[in-house]
Design brief:
By secondary structure, the chain is α/β, with parallel strands linked by helices. It has seven helices and 13 strands.
């Protein structure tokens, strides 16, 4: 039986989750660069790490770094030569917990997070809420924080606020996956982000506003009102002309449905 892969430590998600050629890019099957492959490229080619330094930073063997790096470089060569679109997603990785947990980068963007450092038990439900000053932030793609709640047998047992470290639309879904989140409660959200969450098996309850803690309590008691058809939130300072970036906007109506029984 082959040994299980050791999760590679990653400091941050890419700011751009993909790239597309100027000509005929959308017509071709995208090349998938995994997050750990991206991290090896970032550390070695951007930060100037040696493969040995990279192995220490990612907490894996140097031979493993060499294989990851070579695979990533071949993929990037195919992207450039064949004119393929590139998507950065998936892989075997975990999010770094900051310098206090052994990160060697002096500019590591990650604060120490007990949720990031602890494995979630099988009986725990983990709920994320887009968060700002105690309330539900109304634009998923621009949220700077998630409040993460752990619940067991329908009761809250812990919570923690986690920074997104400037991650944009495409990376936030993968951040939630890395945090082992089961459920997301938010205000407005674009179609692309909804699809990304669905592909990762994260349940979405959008179109919710108000106090974050109260929303989670309502979810656990099966009384949360949400909108299954929610799209990009129309909030103050966010102007629209039919579309919001690339994911499209539409009005949302809070209070449409209640959360189903768990």
């Amino acid at each position: 039986m082959p040994r299980p892969k050791k999760c590679r430590r990653v400091c941050r998600f890419p700011e751009n989750p993909g790239f597309c050629p100027l000509e005929s890019g959308e017509e071709k099957e995208p090349m998938i660069l995994t997050v750990d492959e991206y991290e090896a490229i970032r550390l070695i080619d951007k930060e100037g790490f040696s493969q040995e330094q990279c192995s220490e930073q990612m907490q894996i063997a140097r031979t493993t770094v060499q294989k990851i790096y070579e695979t990533a470089r071949r993929k990037l060569a195919d992207v450039l030569v064949e004119g393929l679109p590139l998507k950065i997603e998936g892989g075997d990785y975990r999010i770094c917990g900051g310098a206090e947990h052994g990160c060697e980068l002096s500019h590591c963007p990650n604060p120490v997070s007990t949720i990031q450092q602890s494995a979630k038990g099988g009986s725990i439900m983990r709920i994320a809420v887009t968060y700002e000053n105690g309330t539900i932030f109304q634009h998923f793609g621009h949220t700077e924080q998630f409040k993460i709640y752990d619940a067991k047998d329908g009761k809250l047992i812990s919570s923690e606020v986690v920074s997104t470290n400037g991650s944009g639309h495409g990376a936030l879904a993968q951040l939630l996956q890395a945090l082992q989140v089961d459920v997301l409660i938010c205000g407005g959200i674009g179609g692309g982000a909804k699809n990304a969450l669905a592909s990762l098996g994260i349940e979405l309850y959008g179109g919710v506003s108000g106090d974050a803690d109260q929303a989670v309590e309502a979810f656990l008691s099966h009384t949360l009102k949400f909108d299954p058809h929610v799209m990009c939130s129309h909030h103050e300072g966010h102007h629209h002309e039919g579309q919001c970036g690339s994911h499209g906007c539409g009005g949302h109506h809070c209070g449409g449905e209640k959360a189903p029984s768990l």
